[in-house]
Each structure stands twice: as structure tokens, then as C-alpha cells.
Amino acid sequence: MDEEAKRAEFDRRSEAEGAVYREMIAVVGEVAQASASLELQLRQLMATLLDSKYARLVAAGLGVSELIDTCTALMKVNQEVTEDARSEGLSLLAGLKDVINTRNQLVHGLIATHSPGRHEADEPVVQTVALVSKRRKPEAMVFITKSEAEETTRKLHDRSSGILHWAVTYLPGPLRRDQVTA
What we know:
Blueprint: H1 3-50, H2 55-60, H3 64-77, H4 83-93, H5 96-108, E1 110-114, E2 127-132, E3 140-143, H6 146-170
Helix pairs in contact: 1-3, 1-5, 1-6, 3-4, 4-6, 5-6
């Protein structure tokens, strides 16, 4: 292969990797939006279950993991929720931290593309690598495909709409107490 052909092949592969990278960045944006919707639903669920004029203020200070734990605890003890409804609500919250973990890896990780094998006959297979760095731990490479990222978006949307539907269906009307908003 002459130099011009090698350069053309390099440019073609670079463009293909760039396109996949841009697609993945768009999917990560969708993940972030879906998780924001879920977080809003969790805050509203917690405020409704807590039924206090300070509920929204308390919910505002909690992270997603804490919201999940608090909603789970409140759902378990809320006397206005039937056992069937409680079981359905708890199943919506179960396993949600795993979805949030994948979300965090996508949103907070560095997205990079990698094409194993640069041989002339090989067509590039692009993988997405999230370089995740956690506090006081060295970074780790986590491989997340575009389809896995899209599945994370779907799971976040499903849980968000499921929580909203559950709250509207099973919880008594609007909050009985005025909320502190300022």
C-alpha cells in the first residue's frame, strides 16, 4: 500500500471513529436528561411519602442514592399504601442503584474510542471506554457500548415514568400540607 493510500485509509478510519464518538456523546446527553427526570420523580415521591411541609426542602439536599434509600424506607412504613401497591413501588426502586451506577460511569467518565487492531485488512471495531475515577481510588477502564448506554437511557425513562404512574395511581391526592418553598 503506497503512502497516499495509507493516508486515505487512516483518514477514513479516523472519520469513522469520530462519528461513533459523536454518537456516543449524544447518547450520554440522553442518559443525563433521563437521569434528571428520574431524580425529579424521586424527589417528588419522597416529598409525597414524607408528607411534611419541609419535605421538599429535605429532599432537595439528598443525592440520588439517598433518595432511593429514603423513598424505600418511607414506602415500607407508609400506612396509606396497600401491600400490593407497596410491592409494586418497591420493585420500581429495587436495582435502581445499579442503573444509576452505569449512569454515573457514562456521565462522569471520560468517553474515548478504541479500535483494536490497525492491520490493513481489519475493519475498525470501535468500543467506547469510560475512564472512571472515583474519589480516593485510581481510575478504572469500564467498557460501555453504545447499545448499553441506550439501554441505560431506556431503563432510566422507564423507572421515571413508572414512579410517576405509581405515585399518581396509589398515593392520596395532592399533599395535604403546604410546602416551604423559599
